[in-house]
């Protein structure tokens, strides 16, 4: 798996990241989701440079101009619920892309006994598509790996891009084992060093789902 760390170059992405991480800015949920969306849009732009392009004739009112546009059939898949705003950023920029969803949640508990549950899935067929699997947080990598396995029931993508906002080093190492080949690319807006005992990224930003949509009942409270 190739890793592209977009924080290495100064850009607007770093400015949106600083607001996303800042506990004061995080009080504004609308802004939090907007920053995820804006990072999705800018990441989509960077990723678009790696797609397959061919030249087409475009008829203007005054003549014909040859323009290169991409030929990939793009599907943007995400993990409910924290992935929703980031996914919207990608679909805002990739006109005509299709969307895929799985619902996954991590049962609260220590890192050692972390259980991930996958439930609802909705996907178009994925055979031969360029599949962008987008989720803001790559902590242990368990959710993304399980989500991708579930999506494979809908077909085999030609190309896989995994797109996250913050990746923990441990999560990257785990995904490297799952995707050892160079044909998978991980795009991230930042890399953070550690996970705490509850498998949250430190310094990270906190709980991306709760910051986007408000706190949820724990699995025990729902019983
Ligand atoms: C977050 C995030 C990922 C997962 C990452 O979701 O959106 O899916 O955690 O953790 P992992 O790499 O250790 O699997 P979360 O479980 O917080 O659910 P939520 O979107 O409902 O808040
Ligand atoms: N999920 C989150 O929302 N945040 C983390 O730090 C890890 C997983």
Keywords:
223 residues; alpha/beta; Rossmann fold; seven-stranded mixed sheet; 6 helices; binds 1-O-pyrophosphono-5-O-phosphono-alpha-D-ribofuranose; binds uracil
Describe this structure in words.
The protein has helices spanning 12-21, 29-48, 84-93, 142-151, 169-178, 208-213, and strands at 2-5, 53-59, 64-70, 74-80, 98-106, 116-122, 130-134, 137-138, 159-164, 166-168, 184-188, 191-192, 194-195, 201-202. The model has no long low-confidence stretch (mean pLDDT 95). The chain is globular and about 65 Å long. A 7-stranded mixed sheet has the order 1-11-9-7-4-5-6, sandwiched between helices. The protein has a 3-stranded parallel sheet with strand order 8-10-12. The chain starts with a strand and ends in a 10-residue tail after the last helix. It has a single domain, classed as Rossmann fold (3-Layer(aba) Sandwich). It contains 6 helices and 14 strands. Helices cover 30% and strands 30% of the residues. Bound molecules: 1-O-pyrophosphono-5-O-phosphono-alpha-D-ribofuranose and uracil (URA). The site of 1-O-pyrophosphono-5-O-phosphono-alpha-D-ribofuranose has 23 residues, from strand 5, strand 8, helix 4 and helix 6. 1-O-pyrophosphono-5-O-phosphono-alpha-D-ribofuranose binds at residues 79, 81-83, 104-106, 116, 135-143, 171, 199, 207-210.
Distance between the termini: 40 Å
Strand content range: 25-35%
Shape assignment: globular
Read across the widest sheet, the strand sequence of neighbours is 1-11-9-7-4-5-6
| Bound ions, cofactors and other small molecules, one mention each | 1-O-pyrophosphono-5-O-phosphono-alpha-D-ribofuranose, uracil
What's the gyration radius in Å?
18 Å
Helical proportion?
25-40%
Q: Which structural class should the secondary elements be placed in? A: alpha/beta
Order of helices and strands: EHHEEEHEEEEHEEHEEEEH
Q: Please tell me the total number of domains.
A: 1
Mean pLDDT: 95
Question: Main sheet, how many strands, which sense, barrel?
Answer: 7 strands, mixed
């Amino acid at each position: 798996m190739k890793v592209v760390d977009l924080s290495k170059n100064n850009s607007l992405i770093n400015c949106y990241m600083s607001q996303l991480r800042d506990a004061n800015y995080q009080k504004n949920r609308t802004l939090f989701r907007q920053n995820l969306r804006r990072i999705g849009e800018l990441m989509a732009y960077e990723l678009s440079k790696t797609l397959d392009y061919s030249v087409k004739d475009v008829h203007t009112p005054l003549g014909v101009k040859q323009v290169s546009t991409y030929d990939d059939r793009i599907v943007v898949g995400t993990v409910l619920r924290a992935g929703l705003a980031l996914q919207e950023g990608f679909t805002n920029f990739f006109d005509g892309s299709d969307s895929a969803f799985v619902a996954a949640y991590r049962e609260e508990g220590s890192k050692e006994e972390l259980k991930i549950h996958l439930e609802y899935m909705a996907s178009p067929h994925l055979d031969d598509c360029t599949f962008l699997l987008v989720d803001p947080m790559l902590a242990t990598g368990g959710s993304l790996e399980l989500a991708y396995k579930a999506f494979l029931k809908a077909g085999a993508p030609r190309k896989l891009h995994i797109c996250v906002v913050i990746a923990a080093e441990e999560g990257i190492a785990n995904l490297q084992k799952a995707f050892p080949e160079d044909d998978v690319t991980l795009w991230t807006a930042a890399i953070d060093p550690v996970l705490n005992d509850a498998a949250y990224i430190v310094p990270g930003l906190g709980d991306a789902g709760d910051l986007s949509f408000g706190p949820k009942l724990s699995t025990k409270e729902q019983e």
